[in-house]
Each structure stands twice: as structure tokens, then as C-alpha cells.
Amino acid sequence: MANKLHSETSPYLRQHQHNPVEWYPWGEEALGKARSENKLLIVSIGYSACHWCHVMERESFEDESVAAVMNEHFVSIKVDREERPDIDQVYMLAVQLMTGQGGWPLNCICLPDGRPIYGGTYFRPEDWKNVLLQLASMWRDTPEVAFDYAERLTAGIQQSEQLPVNRIPERYSVEDLNAIVTPWKRQFDKVEGGYTRTPKFPLPNNWLFLLRYAVATDDRETLDHVHFTLRKIACGGIYDHVGGGFARYSVDGRWHIPHFEKMLYDNAQLVSLYAEAWQQQGDPLYKRVVTETLEWVKRELTGPDGRFYCALDADSEGVEGKFYTFHRSEIEQVLGADAELFCAYFGVTETGNWEEEEINVLKADMDADRFAQEAGFTADEWETYLREAKRRLLEYRSQRVRPGLDDKLLASWNGLMLKAFLDAYRVFDSAEYLDAAKANASFIRRFLYADDGSLLHQPAANGKVLPAFLDDYAFCIDAFATLYEATFEEEWIYEAKRLLDMALERFYEEDQKVFYYTADTAEQLIARKQEIMDNVIPSSTSAIARQLNRLGLFFDHPPYRAVAAQLLANVAPQLPKYGSAYSNWAILLLEEVVPCSEIVLTGPGWLGMRRVVDIRYIPNKIILGGTKGTLPLLTNRIANDKTQAYVCRNKTCSLPVYSEQELVELLIN
User: Fold this and answer.
1) Residue 79 near residue 45, CB atoms below 8 Å
2) Long-range contacts of 571-576 (CB under 8 A, 24+ apart)
3) Whose CB among 189, 259, 341, 637 lies 3.0–4.6 Å from 196's, allowing a Cys bridge?
């Protein structure tokens, strides 16, 4: 019989509905049962695409003897970390404080009131049973020990990441940026790209900052390493060369063997990064990656109404990576005479380049395109050859059992991918990308809004209404503002402003000068946390701070920028200590040091003028205009009978210019 997870909408929770463990979803039913029966809680957190979550389920949660221990002594709660990042945030911090590390699956043992007393990540079955039996015995015989530890640990959770309110400096300088990047460079892996650590994560926001910093400061060493890293990632097995899209990370130090799960948020940020890198240095590899990845998103992660789904699992048929790997004989069967060149290009061997599995994960050398020259192809012919070979292999691969799809719909991740399509549209001028972005924006407004106009974290279903978190607001605001810049349809910039005002009202505490991750009306957990440090996804606080700065310029509204300035001042002393964990904050600092270009393009020829802007690398800019508008910078600057452009910096605007060549001269001076 199904347990209490049978009516949940999360694929991850539903995966556990037939476990012998008497799982509950997070909620008052489970918490009330723990209190009334005076039982400890097991809070077990994971997500659908998590390989080791599946392993622990198979080994422990499907085992009758393990389930018997859990059911007798505990109330067991299953949490999807992507559905409830607020819960994950609290208990991840608890495990990190207890053990010095974290990850998923995340398993926390808590008092009936939710305060943690023990935790860890993956446990082998016998270890898990032993831990649970010892904790049950302690709770029965010496509960005061548990209460004492819970009190001290909860205090640590509540006090973590609290920063003092610092004085806002009169100005920031290039020296402040150099102080962040100089120690950061010591981590660069000069052989394989990225950092000298294994496993290797792409961390797109890191390279976005370093790209912008390197160009702004003319740091050739850093710029070269950024492009070296991006090429290594794009050539590695972490990138799906047949179907497009990136896996989360590589388990080795060469970007070769991935952890095969594919996440919407990784791919959204990497599309934006590679589009910007192409804009700065037009490497055909970057365009290929963007094109193929967005084709994959449209094919495999896009649903009705333009919605974007969360992820694809790493496993299929119980084997990690089985869907994505090839024996050489398969490639020869599919490609025939074209197989030899293809196999040479992607390092495919008879015995397999993934030695422990004796199978091949496609991976190209950085100079692999030399095969095109040696074989007599032109650049266009080579692109056609690769595209056709990949198409044939993709068709063959599509007949396999597919990895599971996590079809959750999260506002934050949809916002990230919406922006990615817009970034690609602006750089590559592809109308289909704009169409996809508009469809998704309409989906967000139709399905991810509450009756009062506030955001939802995911669509309401089965009576469950989950209000949005701060990152949902930040990334949707960013997406809507970017959609305005792509279309000059003012409804989107005003919608971004409305959501920003709502975020200030519900998440910002004026006295403490902090944004909390949860709204003041949200469910109260054992701690209301901030999210300061950037991770694979930028932190919600750094993301909202950048939007305060940006919309402060669009609307000429100093109070927005004042809040952002205070947030940056509070965090700034931390940046030199660990730059890669504050990369989005570092972008905000860079935007303070390098003046923003406020570009106004009006009249019937505005689109042609904007294309002149978009082919140039000007990362710190806002762009506005069209044939009508009410934004402050448009006042007295719209003439419907003629096209004109202005460039403003530091509250000073140029005289209007009327030709594309004159605009180019304004932009480069």
C-alpha cells in the first residue's frame, strides 16, 4: 500500500510512495504525530535527479528491516529540496555544523519540535540502522542529552551568516577588485581549466564575473584562463555532444566523466555565460554549445504553455549514464563510413574511454577541429558534418529507455531559463529564442501567481499553495527586466518593479538591513535564514541586490540603489577571503567600479540600433527605448518620425545621434 506521499506532486516524493517506510510529507500531520507520540523525527531530504538518493532508497528505504526500525521509533518525513529549499537550507546548515560537510541525500534526526540532534548524508544500510537504534535508545533513556545538544545546535543555526551593518564606502576601486581576484587566481588549474580540485563543477557565475573583470581591467592572464576553461568544459564529457546540454559536474579532474544528471538551472546559466563569452570572443564552439543546449531544452525540458521542467535523472534502467554512453560498434553501425572520423574526433575506442565501464563518454580535444582541416572540410562543411552525425546518433539514442524527468515547475529556475533564451536571442538574433522566452513569461504570469499578485514557488496543486522564496522573486524580476530590454514592451519592466516592491515589503528587514530567504508571512521553521554566499546558483540576496541596482537605474529611484549599496557594504569585507563563493557580489562590486552605460534607442529604427549595441561586448549596461514609453530616461527623447540614440554615464547623457556609425563611436568612446 502507498504511504502518505501518494498524493504529492513532486516526482521525488512520489518515487517513495511504495517504500515500506511510513513516509509523511512535511506538514502538520507529521509534526503533530511526532509531538503527540513523543517520537523523534527523521527529516530525509533529496531530489529526483540525485543518484545517491536513489541508492539509499534502494538499499535502505526499500528494505523491510530498515523500515521496521524507522516506523517503530520515528516519524519519517521526506522532503524534496527543490520544492522546499527553506527546509533544506536549515537542515543542510545543521549537518554542516555537525560534520563539516553536506550533500544529498541529507538525513537529519530531530526532536519532535524539529530541532536537529544528529545528521549526515548517505548511510549504508547497517550503519543507518545502528545510528537509528542508538538515537532511539538515547531518546528513551537520556532525553536531556538530546535537548541540550538541540538547543546549542539551533542557536548556531540561527546565528550563522549574520553580518554587521557596515558603513557604505564613498567609492570602490579597481584595487578592491584586485584584492578579490589575486588570491582567487591561485586556485586556477592551468592544465585542465577551472580550479585545482576534483570533482569539477562549472560554476557559471564564477566565470561570468572573471570574464567581465578581465575585460574591464585588461587582465589578459585571467581572460585567457576563462576562455581556456570554457573550451575545456564544452569539449569535455560533461557536455552532451549528441543531444546538447550539460551535466552537473565531472567526477574526474578532466571534465570527462560526468555525474549525468542534467539540471535546468545549470544549463540556463551556462547558456547565458557562453552567449556572453561568444559576444566577447566569437568562438564557433560557444555558438554551437548555445544552439545545441537550447535545442535540448526545447525538446526535452519544455512543456505546454512554454513551461520549463526541472531536470533529467542521471540513471536509466538503474544504471548511471546508460542513456548517454556508446560502444564503438554502435557508432559504427549508425554512422557507417562517417564513423572513423567521428570516433577520432570524440576519442571513442574499442575498449572504451571510460575504462571502469568499458564504454565511451564522448569527449573532444580542444584542438579537435583540426580534423576538419586535415580532412579537407571548410568551417561550414564541418559544422554540417557534425550536425548530421549527431542527428543520426540522437535518433538512435532516442530509442533507449530514457532517464526520468522531474517535471516540477519552479519560478526561480524558469526565470533563469527565460533569461537564458533572451540572452541568446540578443547575441545571436534568433527570433525563435524570443518566442520561447515570451511563452515562458506568459506561463509564469498565468500559473505562478497567487490571487493577490504575489509569486508562487510552484503552481498550486492538490490544495497545496507554496509562496515564493526570495530567489523566485529575484530571478523572475531579472527575467522580466531582460524581456523589456529585448522588446521595449514596458509592461515587463513595470511588472519587474511591482515584484521588486513586493520583495522589499515581504523579505526585507529595514532595522537589520537584511533580506530573509522566506517571506514574513511564510511558515515559521526553527530559524529564519538569510542566504548570503553564492553557490552554483547565485544567492538570493546577491541576486536581489543586483536587481535593486538595475531597477534603480531604470526608474531613477535612489532608494532602491541605497538598499543595494548597504547590502554590498555589509558583504564586501568577506569577498577577498573566498572570491568564488561571492562571485555574484563581486559582479555587483564591479558594476559599482565600472560606470553603467544607460543606452536609449528611440524611433522606428530602434531595433537596428539595438543590434549595433548587441554585437559589442558591453556587459554593464541597461538599454531602453522604442516608439513610446514612460520611463524617466525616455522623457522628451522619443520622436516617432526619426530614430535617435543617447548614451548616458554617471548621470550625464550625450547629445542624440541618428546613425548606426555615430552610435558605434559613442559606445567605444
Assistant:
1) yes
2) 571/163, 571/532, 571/542, 572/166, 572/169, 572/172, 572/176, 573/166, 574/163, 575/179, 575/180, 576/179, 576/180, 576/183
3) 189
H helix or E strand, kind and range, residue 108: strand 106-110
Given this model, what pLDDT does residue 369 score?
79
Whether cis (ω within 30° of 0) applies to the bond prior to 199 is yes
pLDDT tens per residue, range 490-522:
999 999 999 999 999 999 999 999 999 999 999
Residue 127 sits at φ, ψ, to 5 deg, of: -65, -40
Give the three cell numbers for residue 624: 531602453
In this predicted structure, the answer to whether residue 375 has a pLDDT above a threshold of 90 is no
Q: At which residue does the C-alpha cell 517504500 appear?
A: 19
Please say whether the beta carbons of 75 and 43 come within 8 A. Answer: no
Segment (H or E) for 406: strand 405-406
Peptide bond between residue 105 and the one before it cis (omega within 30 degrees of 0): yes
Nine-digit cell string for 236: 569535455
- Cell 539551533: give the residue: 154
Identify the three-state secondary structure at position 337.
helix
Residue 586: band (very low, low, confident or very high) from pLDDT cuts 50, 70, 90: very high
Could you tell me which residues come within 8 angstroms of residue 102 by beta carbon, excluding any fewer than 6 positions away? 92, 93, 95, 96, 121
* Position with higher pLDDT, 318 vs 47: 47
How far apart, in whole angstroms, are the C-alpha atoms of residue 307 and residue 614? Answer: 27
Grid cell in block for residue 331 = 557508432
**For residue 650, what pLDDT is reported?**
87
Distance CA 411, CA 491 (A): 19
The rounded distance, in Å, linking the Cα atoms of 371 and 365 is 11
Q: What is the pLDDT of residues 485-497, one digit of tens each?
A: 999 999 999 999 9
Q: Is 36 exposed, middle or buried (0-12, 13-18, 19+ CB in 10 A)?
A: exposed
- Report residue 651's pLDDT band, with 50, 70 and 90 as the boundaries: confident
pLDDT at 640 over 80: no
What ranges make up the beta strands (E) of 298-351? 311-312, 315-316, 319-320
Secondary structure in 3-state letters for 29-58? HHHHHHHHHCCEEEEEEECCCCHHHHHHHH
- Cβ neighbors of 197 (< 8 A, separation 6 or more) are 187, 189, 253
Residue 388 CA, chain-centre distance (Å), reads: 31
Tens of pLDDT, residue by residue over 263-301, are: 999 999 999 999 999 999 999 999 999 999 999 999 999
Percent pLDDT > 70 in the chain is 100
Beta strands in 159-272 (DSSP E): 249-250, 258-259, 262-263
Q: Enumerate residues 6+ apart whose C-beta is below 8 A from 434.
A: 421, 422, 425, 486, 487
Percent helix, strand and coil across the chain, each rounded to 5?
A: 50, 10, 35
- Residue 632 pLDDT > 80, yes or no? yes
Read off the C-alpha cell for 221.
Answer: 592572464
- Cα–Cα distance, 378 to 206 (Å, whole number): 35
Q: Is the pLDDT of residue 102 over 80?
A: yes
Q: Tell me which residue of 451, 437, 449, 518 sits closest to 481, measured CA to CA.
A: 437
Average pLDDT (405-422) is: 97
Pairing of strands 514-515, 508-509: antiparallel
Calculate mean pLDDT across residues 254-266. 96
Three-class SS of residue 362? coil
Report the chain's mean pLDDT, rounded to a whole number.
95
